Amino acid sequence: MRDLRAALSDGPLLLDGGMGTLLESRGNDVSGNLWSARLLRDDPDEVRRAHEEFVAAGADILITTSYQVGFGIQLADDEVELLLQNSVAVARDAGARFVAASVGPYGAVRADGSEYTGDYGLSRTELRDWHRRRLEALASSGADALAIETVPCLTEVEALCAEVAELGATAWVSLSASSTGWRPGELADAFAVIAATPGMVAAGVNCCAPEAVAGALALVPPGLPGLAYPNSGERWDAQARRWEGDAGIPTDGAQEWIASGARIVGGCCRTTPADITRLAAMLGR
Hints:
The protein is of the alpha/beta class. It is built from twelve helices and ten strands.
């Protein structure tokens, strides 16, 4: 494991982009409930090659393809354990400077859209119980940090942070700024919980429109590095069934995020290695 916290103190680090987007563009089917994790099981070399594209584009940090892998829902426990460990090994083999083990919200594993609402009907204690085994497995996998991402509600933030504190892990938490699960003021409350949790190296937002980033970063408490990896600037037109608008991460926006305290910047859904290359050029890489 490498010291991600120390690297962040030296300056911004570049994250990768949308793995599902890249794998699909390479001709793979990622439409099932396991999303890109299916390829981790069936064709790990293809996952490694996709990771390598992001490294070649300039990414300092790779996020593993474990986002939708969890115990007790889709797969046998021994297969889940193996996939979690392999997700880190495959990313490491791609030559990444840092590897962050993806921990998606409970709703991501259910694959029913509740990751965007936080509407689970579970208590904080129940969420702690459900997340515990996966967090333990990924914390022992050799990853440099846990990438706890797309968290849609305060209750799940509290549950995850309590588990990270008990585990003594290094982690970041990224909130889903587009979730309908946030009541007024709760984004700030969530960032305060994250900042008070030992082992946290950064906090911010992902899987949201680029224009939602700046306002969210303004809520991150001073002293805690920010992170931002939004979706591309496109919007899905459900009636026309097509993406519209300008694709990519706005480099002027990314410069603003860094000026506001972001130390990890990259992309989420529908962002590509080309987007990461542009961000790397902005950073003078």
